[in-house]
Amino acid sequence: MATDKQRAADGVSRRAVLGVAALGGLVAAPLVGRLVRLADAFASPSKAQDARILQLVLQLEYTHVAFYEQALQKASLQGELRTFAQTALGHERAHVAAIKGALGPKAGPRPSFDFGPAVRNPDEFKQAAIKLEDIAIAGYNGQATNLTAGTLAAAAKIVSVEARHASWVRTLAGEVAAPEAVDKPMTAKQVSDALREIGLKA
Amino acid sequence: MTVDGSNGFDDFLESVDRDGAIAETGALAEASLSRRRLLGLALAGAGTALISGAGEAEAASGLPASDVSILNYALVLEYLQASFYTEAERSGALTGKTAEAARVVGSVERAHVRAFRKLLGSKAVKRPLFNFQGTTEQQRPFLKTAVAFEDLAVAAYKGQAPKLKSKAVLAAAVGIHSVEARHAAWMRELFGITPAVHAFDQPASRQHVNRIVASTHFIVQRPETKARGKPKYTG
Amino acid sequence: MIGLLSTGLTARHRQDETAASAALDALPAAPAMALQVGRPEHLGSGRNLSSWTIVRAETVAHTEPAATSPIVATLATATADQTPNALTVLGTRTDAGGQLWVRVGLPVLPNGTVGWVRRRSLGAYQTVSTHLVVDRQRLLATLYRNGAPIFRAPVGVGTDSWPTPAGQFTIRSQLTRYTSPFYGPVAFGTSARSAVLTDWPGGGFVGIHGTNEPQLIPGRISHGCVRMRNSDILQLAALMPVGTPLTIR
What we know:
With about 200 residues, chain A is an all-alpha fold. In chain A, about 60% of the residues lie in helices and about 0% in strands. In chain B, strands 1-2 form a two-stranded antiparallel sheet.
């Protein structure tokens, strides 16, 4: 955690971090390359906080896109499993486009990934897809109470689609499509850690 | 057709069935609750829970009155789903994977009902009486109706989430909303249509959901089985 | 030179990661959910449950789930008590044309007649977990709930000339607030009919009711009805919903 002294030494003022309005009125503060003063971190929803959350969500959606792209190339997916991956990929690309549009030029870069065997054979693919979709759902749900109403409404349109993906691929994996009565949230840190574990590289 | 002339649910069902087969719903309206009657019902009736701002003056558990209203609206939808799956399971009409799905999803919807009733306490609306008009007794009509209900529930939660004032309620609502979406995909897959059509799911307003539910005529008045007349039995 | 540059870059990278981590930590965790969703439970066996419904539109009952099969009875929407015509649901079947038929117990002679009715003529299904058993030998009525006895009372039943019929029936209605000491404070209508009093006004239906002659209970005393002492029938009324299946042995 950065201390006040460190931040002061870096000379990044609060105004400089928060003053820039990106397209759509969002104040973008990319996770990588900027400092956030913890004392000024907003506990209640704000456009600045929306932007921070959207950066995380963008990473999530980039992960999905890369995962489905690579699996379609390398995992020998056939039949309905292939249809699933193609459908999901189309949706995830649309999600990326929408979030990038909301963040404007401040949108974070597409990370690089190493998914290992998960994109090289159908069984590993199915298990990884289940994990990835569940991470997305838990991630979105975990941030719902941190978002402004407008961004929450937009995020809600996405998370239910991820839930449909999750159910679909569970069925394809021969598992119970929806075993739980309620989906538990993940914190932003948990999401970030989970993405790294599955193959997101800094 | 329907009492208030709307065709909402039939249109909805037709959009579900890609084969274009006509959905089967009951022909006659049995003391069913049209939109107008829903608007006129007393506070304790389930119908009013579907109408926004139905005069909930006090809060349950310290919750804002508008949140209580939204929770009761969601409770009616959960009652509807729980009763639907329960009746379908008991009918014995379902087989194979559909029967198993009804068992699992029914148990979850019943758990949702219990959770809502626990939170709302005395403010919870009563369980309505449902005439599912055969959709719990034949497999294909069951699946078509289940798809429609689950998709509707997803849209309903989505429409209300941004209006919730309590963060604790919102946290619960999103956790249930995504489960309903898993259910929707599950029922679609069983029905034989794609589990996830669009990249973005749309919200539905409370008015729209109210219209759809009213058009099904599934919610009916309880028959009055008590009377005052003198018995005419053999003695 | 390169080493210095790379050290600088590494330090910058670590700063960025620290900043990123800090930003993530700054996002509050979701609050506890207001709704506590408990563990989902599967339904019980249902063997103690009975389903009933009402006649929504006047209709006919057939011997088979087929419109071409003989008609057994017509079914009105109301009983002679002016209550909805409640029937026990025994099963369903879909015919070759996709039409749904429901097997129901019919309130007609001979007692125990069943028939098939179109689903759309019937109302909402309601479920009860109660079951009333009247034992004509022991002159005893027992109410079961979920298979366990929760109420017992001595009863008066029909004489040999006007016997209470045996069979499976339905409690169809509850009458209160009438003034008739003969029937006591509460009376239940059933789907059982006297086989001998076929000209009785109102159809000769067997009822379960109170009495102004409690000293005769237990006994074989009535024209077919099941009589209970008034305190017992009042207790029964608090425990037994309309739609409860009735077994008379």
